[in-house]
Design brief:
Rossmann fold, about 325 residues, alpha/beta
C-alpha cells in the first residue's frame, strides 16, 4: 500500500515510516522541517528511511494548498496518516494563531485533497490534551471533550470534528487516535523526559511545576506505533469513524518520573519547585478498552524499561557539551 505520512521526520512520524517500510509499504513523507526545534534532528531521524527504495520525501508545508495538491496529484496515495502538527500546550498559549493555521487549516487542506482525489482512508493523530481537566478517570472516548484548556487541545478537537464532517459528507473512513504522553528515543527536546535527562547529566537545577503529584499516562513509542498499525489495518478493512485512546493505562507522578530517570542515570538531581503553568492538566489516564477490543492494541512497556531504552539512546546520540 502507498501511504502518505505527514510529519514523517519527527519523533513519532519517523518511527512510523520505518515500521511501514519494514512491513513492505511504500511511504511518502510530507514534512516542512519547521524550526520548532533543530531541523537537523529531523534530518537525522530519517537517515535510514532515505536509503530505502520505497521511501519518498516531499518537503513542504501542509498550509500550502498548492503544494498539498501537487503531492496528491503526483502520487497514487491510498491512505493518509496525519501526524504533522504544531505540538505542545504551553507554546500554543503564546502563539495560538500559528497553532490554528497549522493544526486546523493544514488538516483541512489534507482532507480536501483526499476528497478531491477519492482517498477514503484517513488516520488523524489527536491528543489526550483534549480531555482537559476531566474529573472522571480513566478517560474514555465517550467522555465530554468540550472544555479544552489550551489552544493546542482546542485545535486537536477541531481536527476530530473536521474528520467527522468529511466522513459524513464524503463517505471517508476515519480514525482519530488520542495519544497519551509519548516518550522514547528521538523524543522532542522540549519535552520533560528529554529535558530532565539533559539537566541531570549537566548537573543543572531541574524546574518542577506544582507539588510533584501531577501525573501522566506515559506511553512508549513502540506501543504507539503498534497502535497506529492496528488502526491502519482497521481503517483499511472497515467503513468507519472511530476514536481510540492510545496509552499505557497507568499513571506516573512527576516525582516518580524524575526519580526513575535519576535511578537509571545514578545521579541525584537538584530541584527548583515552581507554580503550575497555564494549560497544564492535573492528570492524564487512558481507558484503552476500546482499542484493545477493536484494534488488538496491547501496550506492554513498563515505565522503567522505557526510560532505560531512552537513556541509552540519549547517551549514544546527544552530546551535552554541544547542547
Amino acid at each position: 500500500m502507498k501511504i502518505l505520512v505527514t510529519g514523517g521526520s519527527g519523533f513519532i512520524g519517523s518511527h512510523l515510516c520505518e515500521r511501514l517500510l519494514a512491513d513492505g509499504h511504500k511511504v511518502i513523507n510530507l514534512d516542512n522541517f519547521c524550526d520548532f526545534y533543530d531541523p537537523k534532528i529531523k534530518r537525522s531521524n530519517i537517515s535510514w528511511s532515505q536509503k530505502q527504495v520505497n521511501y519518498h520525501l516531499c518537503e513542504g508545508d501542509i498550509r500550502d494548498q498548492d503544494f498539498v495538491e501537487k503531492v496528491f496529484r503526483e502520487n497514487e496515495i491510498e491512505m493518509v496518516i496525519h501526524v504533522a502538527a504544531m505540538a505542545g500546550v504551553r507554546p500554543s498559549i503564546e502563539n495560538p494563531q500559528l497553532y490554528c493555521t497549522v493544526n486546523v487549516n493544514g488538516t483541512q487542506n489534507l482532507l480536501e485533497a483526499c476528497r478531491k482525489h477519492q482517498i477514503k482512508k484517513f488516520i488523524f493523530a489527536s491528543s489526550s490534551s483534549i480531555y482537559g481537566n476531566n474529573r472522571k478517570v480513566p478517560f474514555a472516548e465517550t467522555d465530554s471533550v468540550d472544555h479544552p484548556i489550551s489552544p493546542y487541545a482546542a485545535t486537536k478537537k477541531m481536527g476530530e470534528l473536521l474528520c467527522y464532517s468529511y466522513h459524513y459528507l464524503f463517505d471517508m473512513s476515519m480514525i482519530c487516535l488520542r495519544f497519551f504522553t509519548v516518550y522514547g528515543p528521538r523524543q522532542r527536546p522540549d519535552l520533560a523526559i528529554y529535558k530532565f535527562t539533559k539537566f541531570l547529566l549537566e548537573g543543572t537545577e531541574i524546574p518542577l511545576f506544582g507539588d510533584g503529584s501531577t501525573s501522566r499516562d506515559y506511553t512508549f513509542y513502540k506501543d504507539i506505533i503498534n497502535g497506529i498499525m492496528g488502526a491502519a489495518e482497521y481503517v483499511n478493512a472497515h467503513k468507519c469513524y472511530e476514536i481510540f485512546n492510545l496509552g499505557e493505562s497507568q499513571t506516573i507522578t512527576l516525582k516518580k518520573m524524575v526519580t526513575t530517570i535519576e535511578k537509571e542515570l545514578d545521579i541525584k538531581g537538584k530541584y527548583k519547585w515552581l507554580e503550575m503553568q497555564q494549560g497544564d492538566v492535573n492528570i492524564t489516564y487512558s481507558d484503552i478498552t476500546k482499542a484493545k477490543e477493536m484494534l488488538g492494541y496491547a501496550p506492554d512497556t513498563e515505565f522503567s524499561a522505557g526510560i532505560r531504552e531512552f537513556v541509552k539512546w540519549f547517551k549514544n546520540n546527544i552530546n551535552i557539551s554541544e547542547e
